[in-house]
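Example 483.
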Amino acid sequence: MAQNKEHIVMFPFMAQGHIIPFLALAQLLEKKKGCTITIINTPLNIKKLSSSFPPSSSIRLLEIPFKSSDHGLPPDAENTNALTPHLFFKFFQASLSLKPSFKHLMHNLVLETNGQHGRPACMITDIFFGWTTEIAHELGMRHAVFSIVGAFGMACYYSSCLHLPHLKAKSDETEFTLPDFPEANKCHSSQLSESLRASNGTDPFALYLKKVFTEAMKTNGLIINTVEELDRIGTMYFRKTLNMPVWAVGPLLLPSENGTNRAGKEAKLTPEACKNWLDAKTPNSVLYISFGSQNTLSKSQMMQLAMALEASSKNFIWVVRPPLEYDIDSEFKEDECLPEGFVHRIKAQNKGLIVEQWAPQLEILSHKATSAFMSQCGWNSVMESLIHGVPLIGWPMASEQSFTAKYLVEQVGVCVEVARGRSCEVRHEDIVAKMELVMNETEKGNQMRRKACEAKEILKDAMKDEDGYKGSSIKALEDFLTA
Ligand code: UDP
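Predicted structure in complex with uridine-5'-diphosphate:
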């Protein structure tokens, strides 16, 4: 597809969970294979990226014009982390306006025959930018979609969008078989994301996704941030059912930075402060809780979680964002969103850290004091947890996350689910029970830790490139470059 040292253009969707693995892929292609890369994104994302990753001679950052207020969005909303979930669809629709400018930029890049970067031969874009396949083919360029989501989660999400009306009819029953996945256990209708569940085949967001996914599958191949040995049902689905080349090149993780910035997001808790706090805790005693860069709980869910944390004997680090009912940019109001006196009591006992908005996740997951991760099962978080052998307590929120959680529970054995969605009712007693099941020396907890350690070895092996040995992901990366 592309040759070593070739110029590749990359275009991630405007969300932290997308930009981070795209950057990691760019760095891998640059370091291992000497490729030159142009990463395209909207002005604010590029500005943030250039402050945390000053462009190197081989990785160039390029702005594409975008003004969120032209689309009825809040000013400077160029990333899903700046938006409350009810505005996500509007943001996706606004992203369609990037098409003419992208086309123009690509035409200019193709004319750029001189200089360090030279004419690009290959375009790697987000699955949400399915419309780029057409532009790549018009320009005679190869195109690859990069799925930042694991193969099983992506395959189920893609397949459920495609089979929407039929699936909806089935999902009215409590349980149903996922089309295309006879080998996976039955699904429950609550595992479908909100737009799919609500849809009778005409929900605008669901139809939008169906269209972009269909366009994206006109690509020349699919690069996935996953590991073949861990995610075979999904990779085989794309290969066999969709007949497309698939390269599993993960886990793509950004190396921990010394500073507080990762992909442009400010960490309120510095890695040093976090390490000092964790150093004082006994091994395997801390629960890390984060729902990723763009999700949050409802106020009542937050209350129940806080009550559970107080009732349990475990330590915790909890990344909080304003609950669903509030503006995402507002200050986090602990007196309104947490039980009275909670923060004071937690501080007095030195039992937990409450971090607003953003924590140094890799530092936390790599620390020996961390025992489990309560997560929305976003794929970056899953990879980051498993590479450190940390089992998960899943609370999937949106999109493909329920399918990912299902896979981690049923096939990999490293997760138990505690709840589903942003609006479900939860009881603090049930949360405590799940925490204790996973974090204590129970049979299930021990088994999950063992499986998480096995997954860690599989993930590490995939990326090995030493003494003539190449792991599956390194081989896949080379295959992609020479295909
Ligand atoms: N992240 C972080 N600190 C936080 C929250 C998130 O560093 O407080 C990073 C996390 O390490 C991961 C990414 O943001 O790399 C979130 O991606 P994921 O796929 O887990 O979820 P999404 O944000 O896309 O829902």
